[in-house]
Amino acid sequence: MIGYVTIGVSNMETAKKFYCDLFADKGAKVVIDSGRIAFVGAKRGEPMLALCEPYDKAAATSGNGVMIAFPAETKDDVSVMYDKAIALGAKDDGAPGQRIEDRFYGAYVRDADNNKLCFYVFG
């Protein structure tokens, strides 16, 4: 249903490296790069993350209440992604843990541009 999600970045090279490294085990790479915007994913036609320097040349800012959630297979995978993001320079925004009774397990980080990311599994 989702083709891609766009987030603003202030340093394109840093952002491309962070997201490609973070999702390397899922085959992530830059699949389209036109300078000001780059699409990171496994291949065209599958959901991607677009990294974009704002068109209006203003500072990239994270949206209040905006978060991008990435599914994991297991709770252990949530921890692996969280730890990997932290090792790549992300900031903690909620360590791995059970969030909604026994239905949702997640972890939260902020990237270099303060974009909020969630790694989660239902159950």
Explain what you see.
This protein is of the alpha/beta class and 123 residues long. It folds into 2 domains: 1-54, 2,3-Dihydroxybiphenyl 1,2-Dioxygenase, domain 1 (Roll), CATH 3.10.180.10; 62-123, 2,3-Dihydroxybiphenyl 1,2-Dioxygenase, domain 1 (Roll). It contains 2 helices and 8 strands, in the order βαββββαβββ. It has helices spanning 12-22, 75-87; strands at residues 4-8, 29-33, 37-41, 48-52, 67-71, 91-100, 104-110, 116-122. A 4-stranded mixed sheet has the order 1-4-3-2, with helices on one face. A hairpin with a 5-residue loop joins strand 7 and strand 8.
Topology:
Layout: E1 4-8, H1 12-22, E2 29-33, E3 37-41, E4 48-52, E5 67-71, H2 75-87, E6 91-100, E7 104-110, E8 116-122
Parallel strand pairs: 1-4, 5-8
Antiparallel strand pairs: 2-3, 3-4, 6-7, 7-8
Task: Briefly say what this structure is.
The chain is an alpha/beta fold and 123 residues long. The chain has 2 helices and 8 strands, in the order E-H-E-E-E-E-H-E-E-E.
Question: For the report, how would you describe the main beta sheet?
Answer: 4 strands, mixed
CATH superfamily of the largest domain: 2,3-Dihydroxybiphenyl 1,2-Dioxygenase, domain 1
SSE order, one letter for each helix or strand = EHEEEEHEEE
Strand order of the largest sheet: 1-4-3-2
Helical residue percent band? 10-25%
Beta-strand content estimate: 35-45%
Q: How does the helix and strand content classify structurally?
A: alpha/beta
Overall 3D form: globular
